[in-house]
Amino acid sequence: MDTVTFPSQLTAAAADHPWPLVFATVSGAHLYGFPSADSDWDLRGVHVLGVREVLGLEAQAETHALDQDDGTVELDLVTHDAHKFAGLLLKRNGYVLEQLLSPLIVHTSPAHAALRTLAPGVLTRHHAHHYLGFTANQWRLLEKEAVPRVKPLLYAFRTVLTGLHLLKTGEVEANLERLNEDARLPFLTDLLALKRSGHEAEALPAPLEIYHAEHQRLVALLEDAQTTTQLPGTVPEEVRRAVSDWVVAVRLGELSCS
Fold first, then answer.
1. Is-contact 151 202, C-beta < 8 A?
2. Strand 74-81 and strand 63-69: pairing?
3. φ, ψ dihedrals at 74, nearest 5°
4. Percentage helix, strand, coil for the chain under 3-state DSSP, each rounded to 5
5. Is Transferase tagged as a keyword (predicted)?
6. What CATH number is given for 8-119+234-251 in this structure?
7. Is residue 2's pLDDT more than 80?
8. Which of 15, 74, 184, 243 is the most exposed place for a label (fewest CB within 10 A)?
């Protein structure tokens, strides 16, 4: 796990959560390796609604969100109930995988550790669809910008490289600097440094078209990797049952959230 000192506002938000918290991890630019001084902190995680709330007739919101800006730290907290998160985990959702396996951990628990051990079993070749969709959307957003920014370009390359790494190795890696150790794209090294030393709205130092061919090459590699990967096409039934059992265990308090 990465050793990071987090702003006290993050640990306070986790401690003040209205429901038992399985985990809270940092996502977004800090996880991806290119935060700037004005980047907000994206805190993601899983909470556990009480048995009465789940069994009663009153529908309970499965997602808890908090936006907070005290003038020093801007915080965006989003957590899902264990049932919702587990369902997303079984639906080739790269977001929740990255949140579950993020090394930037603000709060953890035995329940978190138990779910992390199940993560390799939910990986399939179809996770490529998530990353292909994300990177295509980022590129479309870039093309609409009057002054294309560094941040969405880094997002576009981060997602396609994360997808490639996942299908090649069966491992989730969200940090773009680490991903670029294999990709070896010099312009990414320069853009990472520019983003870290600049701000969220930092403009690209060169025309967007310069990066297009390399992005398309990586997209094509990810599309091809769907047929060459060793990852299975579906989540094994025993893994699905294990994830379901995990939901029951945390709901009944058989797995601790503290």
1. yes
2. antiparallel
3. -100, 120
4. 55, 15, 35
5. yes
6. 3.30.460.10
7. no
8. 184
